[in-house]
Amino acid sequence: MPAIKxxxxxxxxxxSWNPVKDQYGVWPAIYGTVISSFIALAISVPIGLGVAIFxxxxxxxxxxxxxxxxxxxxxxxxxxxxxxxWGIFVLIPFLKGFTPLKGQGMxxxxxxxxxxxxxxxxxxxxxxxxxxESGMRQAALGLGAxxxxxxxxxxxxxASSGIIGGIMLxxxxxxxxxxxxxMLIGNSNRVAAFDIFAPSNTVxxxxxxxxxxxxxxxxxxxxxxxxxxxxxxxVVNVLAQLFVTRLQRI
Amino acid sequence: xTSPQLEKSDYGEISLKRNPTSPRTLxxxxxxxxxxxxxxxxxxxxLIILSYLITKGVSSLxxxxxxxxxxxxxxxxxxxxxxxxxxxxxxxxxALISIPLGIMAAIYLSEFNEGKAAEWIRxxxxxxxxxxxxxxxxxxxxxxxxxxxxxxxxxxGFALSILMLPIIVRTTDESLKLVPQDVRQxxxxxxxxxxxTVLQVVLPAALPAIITGITLAIARAAGETAPLLFTALFTQxxxxxxxxxxxxxxxxxxxxxxxxxxxxxxxxxxAWGAAFILVILVLFTSVLSRVATAKRTY
Lengths: 250, 298
Known about the structure:
heterodimer; A: mainly alpha; MetI-like fold; B: mainly alpha; 10 helices
């Protein structure tokens, strides 16, 4: 790993990426990865929780409910490159109509990400909620709680470890998601001030864009970037698994 | 006389009637409405994407699409026959590696080991399935492309096999666990040893669910783009059998990516067509898996 020797820890905090001069720093990419993932989470956590609650209560007749659950899970099965294609030709022109967006940028990438991670939050959240013992719900209702008082004060706290695990799995997916983001985020390596309409970059799209044409020290630098991304997602995933396994034991 | 009013208590008037304007009722109604709206909001993108794929994808499909090579920019016609063949080849390589490994690992987990080790292996498999696919691509690049000094269908297939492995292990493990313990005891009771029990009794019982898991893994792998970008690369030509597939190979997913970011109309239409095929494959296998797992052997 010549890149680690060459750049050391400064690799993470440097923000110039210039293959011609062999200067590499991944700070803009890490920044973009984290920001895009958290915007996506901010959108999809409330919606995903709403879906999880709605589909675990008895609002819909069982047959309709099964189909709805299936449709939400189907969102996870669509290949990410298809989301990217749709984002380029439909979402970006649509957003251009009423926002200062000029083309590719952080906003469409984060929006598509939120759609892609939504089924993870909804499905695992729903599992966690339906796993809460029905006696707890009955006890709450018996004491005079309304449906939503029971949900907010009893069921959600009881299901919290599974819900948090699902959110962290979704975060892991958002951090590592490549194709859709690469096609929509614009791949610009300047350090973005916080501007969701400007092009930005993520570690994974940096890899997707440059790896095939890279040579020499650039390959090593990209490998180093991949290693950083791997460690971040590994930590997030291990924590998520710990939460979800705790859910199964309860 | 039969008024629902109770006596006055410390809490003031108590009515057993549902009060439609009390803040508690209103709060519940509003929250229910929000949850329902969110569910609608979650399904709408799916319907929009599917409708675009159908309108744009079907119109760009023709017989030539399946047999011809991708056109250069600004040339009309052409297809992505080589990409279909390339996807089939690489998914096939991935399946050949991951199916035997995955099924044997799952049999070990559910039949032969109940202790701490199995728990750790399950944990590791789950974590492996969360590793970003582009990282798997970098790994395959380091292991295969750097060793053999060439982009190849083999490297692409190897990367896909790593992505398929956790799916196969998990679905097989779960379907084996669904086979009732009584069946195993009955088999042992009539004199079968463990090897015969697993091979002739448990596996056949779990087979439909296992096959479902395999088709899901294959559909997932066919749509994966990131791990192929720098392992199989892309090419305008047919897979080269004379070079033992050790040359850049086209695939549907990478074709969608490459043709989506160019400004040429004809290539963009081919991208929609390829995306349509990928999504049909995913839809078909998802519905199939629902139907198959709905039936239980025991």
